[in-house]
Amino acid sequence: MFKKPIIKLLVTALALFLAEKLIPGIEIVDFWVALWAAFILGILNFTVKPIVSILALPITFLTLGLFTFVINGLFFLLVSHLIDGFIVDGFFTAILGSIVTSIISSVINSLIDK
Q1: Rounded CA gap, 3 and 6, in Å?
Q2: C-alpha to C-alpha distances, 77 to 12, 25, 32, 58, 114, nearest whole angstrom
Q3: Mean pLDDT across the stretch 45-62?
Q4: What is the pLDDT of residue 16?
Q5: Which band of pLDDT confidence, cut at 50, 70 and 90, is reported for residue 113?
Q6: Buried b / exposed e along 43-78 (16+ C-beta atoms within 10 A)
Q7: Cα-atom radius of gyration of the chain, to the nearest Å?
Q8: How many Å apart are CA 68 and CA 37, to the nearest integer?
Q9: pLDDT tens digits, 8-42
């Protein structure tokens, strides 16, 4: 029952750790910090993101969906402000970090599902 969410949490933490290695401007102190960041990011994506996405629907429509990158970057930046040891230098670094984290976690999750 709890196996799949725990695996997704671990995969997201691993993706955050790999994004830190790939993108200058992102710093994660240790894996526990990455795990907490993944947890908080998951909670935000599950609870707050649907509401924000609906409220931002007009601008998302006008930008042909590109505004979702801004929303994801803002959540990434918010998590960096909430958790000590997870440091993101700026807004554009947060957008890039959220994109790379999403790509890495999607690839790993698709490999696990097979």
Answers
A1: 5
A2: 16, 12, 18, 23, 32
A3: 96
A4: 96
A5: confident
A6: ebeeeebeeeeeeeeeebeeeeeebeebbbbbbbbb
A7: 14
A8: 20
A9: 999 999 999 999 999 999 999 999 999 999 999 99
What is the domain partition of the chain in residue ranges? 3-113
How far apart are alpha carbons 31 and 96 in whole angstroms?
20
- Is there a contact between 17 and 34 (Cβ–Cβ < 8 Å)? yes
HEC profile for 83-98?
CCCEEECCHHHHHHHH
DSSP state of 19: H
For residue 36 the two structure tokens come to 């907490």
- pLDDT the model gives residue 48: 96
User: What dihedral do alpha carbons 101, 104, 105, 109 form, nearest 10°?
Assistant: 170
- Using CA atoms of 110, 107, 77, 65 in order, give the dihedral in degrees to the nearest 10: -80
Residues of the chain with pLDDT > 70: what percent? Answer: 99
Q: Which residues contact 30 (CB under 8 A, 6 or more apart)?
A: 85
